[in-house]
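Support reply, case 0932

Customer input (verbatim):
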Amino acid sequence: MKKEPKCYQIYHIHLLNGEVIEASEAYDLPVEKGLVGKFGKADENELFEIGDAISGISYIPKRSILYIATGDVREGWC
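Our regenerated output:
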């Protein structure tokens, strides 16, 4: 089976302590199902699960996130 290239939206999650965490999701994911949509609907105590197979997973409370900035769109392989 031939692998197809896929585009990913990169986000930079800026935390109150000054740390910046990079996250990504499928570029064609509808906004309401993605990180930005979930962030907008979440209450202050909700935990966000951010991570990947290499870095592992971090659990970040919404109240610790200062803001989310969009970064590049990158092509990867699935």
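We compared this against your earlier run and they match. Two observations from our side: DSSP finds one helix and five strands in the chain. The first helix runs from residue 35 to 41. Please reopen the case if you see a mismatch on your end.
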